[in-house]
Structures are given as structure tokens and as C-alpha cells.
Amino acid sequence: AAIVSTDLQWELTRHSNKYLQKRNGIRLSKDPFNNNGQYTKRHSGFIQQKCAVVKLKNEKTCYITIKNGENLNKPNKMFTKKQFSATAKPAEISAACIAANPAIGAICKKRAKKLQKTAARIASVRAARKELSASKKFKRTNTHRSRKA
User: Fold this and answer.
1) Cβ atoms of 108 and 43 closer than 8 Å
2) Residue 131 contacts by C-beta under 8 Å, 6 or more apart in sequence?
3) 1 has a pLDDT exceeding 50
4) Distances in Å between the alpha carbon of 136 and those of 120, 125, 131, 139, 143?
């Protein structure tokens, strides 16, 4: 099976594909393998043979989905996932990304830091809401008056 170069794929799909978004003249990407939303050949994961993306599953789990360039004709075997705790060091997460594609190590590290901050913020907001709802007491009042007069 012949593999088409990424340069040719980018030239064919750069002006129109399902991940392209134009907002106020700025081109952005919704590509699931794009870590920072920039619409460039380097950041477009659907074109690259090797790529990785860092995502937050819930506030306790961070995971990396890796496309390692093997089994390109078998979609179920094309991707592998590695899970980390949300408190894992960004260096550990970026090391797993670098194993897949060395060019995106710094991007994965930034993304991991951002996701850790997001997870911490979600946890603190959830705790504050729980505390607030525990302190509120609701009373039922009879607002309807009977019409017997």
C-alpha cells in the first residue's frame, strides 16, 4: 500500500476540510489530534502519520491518545491510549508524547499544564457549590389561598 506524503495531503485539504473553522478571518482547527487549535500543517493530526493528543477525561484522569503510524489501514488498532492521573507531572505526559512524535513534546507539556489547572479549578468550583448547597435550607410555604369565602 502506497502512503501519500503529508505535503500532498495538506495541499489537497488545506482550503476545505471538516476540521477547518474560520472565525473573524482567523483559521482554527477542530481536529481531534490538534493540541492547540492552530490550523497549520504541523498541527493537523489527521494528516500526520505519528501524532499524540492530551485530553482530560474527568477531573481525576488525564489521557494521551497516540497515533504511532502503524496499522494505518486498521482504524481500531491505529490508536493507543495511555492514562495518567490528573496530578501527574507534565514532564511524564510529554515524555509519552515525545515517544510518538518528538516535534510536539513542548506542545503536549503546555497542554498537560493547562489541563491540570482546569482540573483543579473544576474540583474547587464543585466543592464550593456543594458547600453552598449544603448551607441553603428551603421551606415550603403555602402560597395558594383557598377560595372559600
Assistant:
1) no
2) none
3) no
4) 25, 17, 9, 10, 20
